[in-house]
Amino acid sequence: MNQPRMNVESFNLDHRTVAAPYVRLADTKVLPAGDVIQKYDVRFTQPNRAHLEMPVVHSLEHLFAEHSRNHSTRVIDFSPMGCQTGFYLILQGEWELDAVLDLVHATLEDVLVATEVPAANEVQCGWGANHTLEGAQAAARTFLAARGEWSTVTA
């Protein structure tokens, strides 16, 4: 299917050709002052075939956002994709892919041993009841089991 070029990088990605799980550099921006940020597509499930349930997405977002900052001060954000198939990891500076994979790996290992979802309450979260530690840990376990495939984006 021939589609017009769009402004959003992921809208130009043929989601039929990717093979999740994977981690891929989606964009690099040089800001006006010269700072660099990189956006990584951390894809947990195969687009248009599977998705993560919202409590799992929500819990992974909280867990990754909190625990990734124990491994790097250059984490800017970890945001869920609306399609519920993965997340965008935004990092300060230029990163080698192996360093990003190590950061993702270390953080997901933290998720496996977590005893609670951080800030899963109505004071710190807009929908504090919408969490599942067990679901997040199951998704993390599945993603970690495929560690050898993370750098392969297409089959």
Proportion of residues in β-strands: 15-25%
Counting helices, strands and paired strands, the structural category is alpha+beta
What would CATH call the architecture? 2-Layer Sandwich
SS element count, helices:
3
Q: Judging from the principal axes of the Cα atoms, what is the shape?
A: globular
Mean pLDDT: 96
> In the residues, how many domains can be counted?
1
Give the C-level CATH assignment. Answer: Alpha Beta
CATH 4th-level superfamily: S-ribosylhomocysteinase (LuxS)
- Total number of β-strand segments? 4
N-to-C CA distance: 19 Å
* H/E element order: EEHEEHH
Gyration radius over CA: 16 Å
Largest sheet: 4 strands, antiparallel
State the CATH topology: Gyrase A, domain 2
Helix content: 25-40%
Low-confidence stretches: none
Strand order of the largest sheet: 1-2-4-3
Structure, explained:
α1 (54-68) packs across α3 and α2 packs antiparallel against α3. The chain is globular, with a radius of gyration of 16 Å. With 155 residues, it is α+β, with helices and mostly antiparallel strands. A hairpin with a 5-residue loop joins β3 (75-80) and β4 (86-92). The chain contains 3 helices and 4 strands.
Outline of the structure:
With 155 residues, the chain is an alpha+beta fold. The protein is 29% helix and 19% strand. Helix 1 packs across helix 2, helix 1 (54-68) crosses helix 3 and helix 2 (97-113) runs antiparallel to helix 3 (133-145).
